Amino acid sequence: MSAPGLAGLTPSAPTASRLVLTGVEQRFRAKDGSTTHALGPLDLDVVDGSFLAVVGPSGCGKSTLLRLVAGFAQPTAGSVEVGGRVVDGPSPDRGVVFQQPNLYPWLSVAENVAFGLKMRHVPRAERRAIVAEHLELVGLADVASRRPYELSGGMQQRVQLARVLANRPSVVLMDEPFAALDAITRERLQDELLRIWRTHRTTVVFITHSVDEAVYLGTRVLVMSPRPGTIVADEPVTFSTSDQAGDAVRDDPAFIEQRRRISAHLRPARNQNPQNPQKESA
């Protein structure tokens, strides 16, 4: 028997989820005419099926990077490509999971998951099948008729994930999705996310402040500098592809060493103020 959710996570072509950034920079102009150099230059090539975790100090441009890949903003310089196509706006092939679930409170769980499919005029019978498949995937088939306010924070995040995956994205972008959750729920959802990713290997870009979370989830960890954000370290990680989970991974000496090494890349940022942006005269 095949695992549920396969259709919702499999790229439509071998290169459909390859993410390439070339010379990407982002600057913002203030009312006084000065320009804030927020990000870059960045060059990045993310192969299909990767789980890319991005860490860095507050204000370094992590969320800006995600917005550029999502198509919510355009870079000041350079280009962003997904599957060989330049990103010039939002698209269902790039799903975004935010820190807050942003569910529609007047809709049921099933209706929330179906929302994007309905907007794309997917036939009703097909919508129902896809919704059932993805609620099963995230372990929420038994709460399909409930409203979001009846769910815990962790369950709401799983609904948001199901809604994103139901649209069959080739890349899933996650902006600190577990940051507001308690430690136990956060670890449980990390394991749930890994279970889904290990089965289907969709491409994931995961933004986090937690080195532990980055090393636990990623196949690759990027460390970003204070603003303007650039890549100061790029390390492969293997723990997410192992058969172990939880404390068995976190207590592994190799895990502890890699976490220490990545944390060391962040130490120089402690002596800088990431909230004090680099300004350039007009």
Keywords:
alpha/beta; 9 helices; disordered N terminus; globular; Rossmann fold; 282 residues; six-stranded mixed sheet; five-stranded antiparallel sheet; 34% helix
Notes on the protein architecture:
Keywords: ATP-binding, Nucleotide-binding, Transport. It holds the Pfam family ABC_tran. It comes from Sanguibacter gelidistatuariae. This is NitT/TauT family transport system ATP-binding protein/taurine transport system ATP-binding protein. The protein is α/β, with parallel strands linked by helices and 282 residues long. The protein has one domain: P-loop containing nucleotide triphosphate hydrolases (Rossmann fold). The protein has nine helices and eleven strands. The strands form two sheets. A six-stranded mixed beta sheet has the order 6-7-8-3-9-10, sandwiched between helices. α3 packs across α4, α3 packs parallel to α5 and α4 packs across α5. The radius of gyration is 19 Å and the shape is globular.
